[in-house]
Design a protein that fits this description.
The chain contains four helices and four strands; from the N terminus they run H-H-E-H-E-H-E-E. A four-stranded mixed β-sheet has the order 1-4-2-3. Helix 4 links the parallel strand 2 and strand 3. The model has no long low-confidence stretch (mean pLDDT about 85).
Amino acid sequence: MTGSLSVFDEDEPVRAPWLVTLADLSLLLVGFFVFLQATQVDPARLAAGIRSGFGAHESAAAPAPMPVDLATATGFAPGSALPGEAASAIEWARTAARDPRTRLRITGEVDGSPADVDPATGSGPILAADRARAVAALLIRQHAIDPARIILSTGRGQRRAVLTLGFEGDRQ
């Protein structure tokens, strides 16, 4: 077959096999230096850079810790911020607070009825906030958790305070 080119032309010069090994070694070396540089990045700055890349503002609050467990303080009378039963919630919070990474969110709730409002203002959200604050004060008085690790919020659902446990921070 004269005049046709073969895919495997045997007249083509052969490359030295050590060039392939050298290229592999070079790529591994570059990858190693990239890895060294990546481990020197401050995780907070890296997260801020990723957030800004997706258009999130620096002033945006950090996301709340994802809840992994919960307890409730119940027995609130309509229009009252005093819990009827909170002993199990106190013990639960004391156990949860053993890990210093935990954050406790206390969400005071009202049932939405006209009777379940703050007596002085007629506001349901104010009563819900009072319920969350009353449970937080009870936990602090009982030395169940440090006040700096408590987050208060309000909601609507039942006459109760919901305590949710979330983890924040790195492993220790």
